[in-house]
Amino acid sequence: MIDVPTDEAVAAGHVETQADTEADSVVRVRVDWHAPAGVHPPKTEGTWHLLAPAGRSLIAPEPVAQSASVVVADARKHPNWQAAQEELRERVRSLPGALVVAAVTSSRSALVWVRVQPPAVWEPAGYTVTVRSDEPGPVGLYPSVIYGWIRWWADQQTRFPPGFPFGLLMPRPTDRIDATLLSDTYRLAVTPADASFTSVVRDPQDPAEWR
Q1: In angstroms, rounded to a whole number, what is the distance separating the alpha carbons of residues 165 and 168?
Q2: In b/e form, how buried is each residue of 102-138, taking b as 16+ CB within 10 angstroms?
Q3: What percent of the chain is modeled with pLDDT above 90?
Q4: In which element (H, E) is residue 156 found?
Q5: Residue 55's pLDDT band (boundaries 50, 70, 90)?
């Protein structure tokens, strides 16, 4: 598992996902967490590693456990979207083995960065999306669902030769994903967030959102 700054509260867990397509073509992702103490990632400030099954790497030709790591940073303490964006950038730069890195901005939203880069390229390359929920959810939900969508998309690809890093051709997730965690269901909206955070739709009913 990758190291994180020692001044952060760290909870290491394991995340598994299953995805399928509903009759209306909406992808549904079921998320299962296995935390050390048998609980979900805490809601206090900190950093969480949700280490997902390596399987076959989306980036390198061979399976790499670190490439399946989902890292979650708590950015709810930041005063605005720009500060959360910088938090996300710092995490991405300091965690070169993580496939998915997220900065949770409120109980209903997170910035999620997905690594899409060749093995030989050191500079982080990827895309960022904003994931919003219709209901408040736990901090690890949003990046875990995007991870589940990535694995679902990868499983559909059959035209690439063995060892091809088809993550390089990975599209952004669909604009709607339904998620299930235990008995709770969340309808998630996914929007691009690469260019500017000023275009992000705010939720006036969420008291944790920045004004």
Answers
A1: 6
A2: bbbbbbbbbbbbbbbbeeeeeebebbbbbbbbeeebb
A3: 27
A4: helix 141-156
A5: low
Measured from the Cβ of residue 20, the count of other Cβ atoms closer than 10 Å reads 9
| Confidence (pTM) | 0.79
Decide: 34 and 18 in contact? Cβ < 8 Å: no
Instruction: At 82, give phi and psi (nearest 5°).
Output: -65, -40
| Confidence band, pLDDT 50/70/90 cuts, at residue 43 | low
CB 180 within 8 A of CB 30: yes
Residue type, 65: A
Q: Which amino acid is at 108?
A: R
Element (H, E) at 86: helix 81-94
Q: Tens digits of per-residue pLDDT, 116-140?
A: 876 667 788 899 999 999 899 988 8
Q: Which of 104, 116, 96 is nearest to 72 (CA)?
A: 104
Report how far Cα 8 is from the mean position of its chain's Cα atoms.
19
- pLDDT the model gives residue 36: 57
